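ok trying again, last paste got cut off:
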Amino acid sequence: MRVVIDATVFPESHPRKLSVLCDHGIERRHRLQVDDPDSPHFVAWLDGLAEWQRVDWQTALELGSRDDGLEPSLVEIRIVVAESSSWGEEHPALTLEDALHLLGEKFQIVLEGDAEDRDFLLAMSNEQQQRFLLDREAQKALDVVLGGGVDSMIKRARRDCEQRDSTYGRRWYLFDSDALRPREPSSKSKELRNACGTHIPYLQLSRRAIENYLPLDTLRNWAYSKRRAQRHRIAKFEAFLRLKDQKDDFNIQHYFNMKHGFKKKRDKRAEAEDYTTVPQADRDALREGFGEDIGRLFQGGSIERRHLERDGGWQDVNPNVARLVALMR
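nice, full thing came through this time. structure:
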């Protein structure tokens, strides 16, 4: 987070609180900058410090300027001398106390599902992005939180929006669209998107769920790699392959319920509306879906990026990962 400090804050603030702020900059958790480094308020304060303190502050400010110049942060706050903080501005103007409270909060990535969503996020990240996310976790600056399903996430999002003093610029949500067709997310997914509003950055998948981003080569390996029930798996995979050519206006593979097939009420209705040209034998092969564990194919970094780029939706998801990284800087 970019932290622009009003020069008048320094002579007006307790040294211990300023020391905590300086540590954020030295440890590169946030990018510190002074709004007017030539201000007499700041220059006189800096000259009055012990040499080691002055070196620390110079280091923190140099790191903040350099890092933000190379890879700008998308989130900025200002620290000002005021009786209370102002959150309604484009860049919130905070008291030092409120700023320290916010800066001390870990960034949270909130996932709708289970650990498979985390594997999906890493799979859709390039090497540099993966390293950044894993390093932040190791540094205890990032928590990846399991949201417990869409209903729980809606409640969490509303609560996070009410607690701006600890969540501003500190949250990012990932959730399914549960869409049966393009640009038609389920009512619950839309409710979650609305709950996030403008306060919580999020990625609502354009395809139905993470499993709909599995490359065909990955599914092919899944179908042919096991001896037990291999014929059943192959029939299911080949039926899924043929779905791509069944509709002219969209790729139905992206909205098929990969886990449960046509077992649920919404999918039975979709079968009657969107799968009428699919041969009955193929619908029967796909009726049970690929199973609850199909998302585990994202584990272990075994999916090749060229496969993701070809039919796994890389162009859809990776720009959002890049934005996530920029939000965390």
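cool. DSSP finds 16 helices and eight strands in the chain. The CA atoms of residues 224 and 230 lie 6 Å apart.
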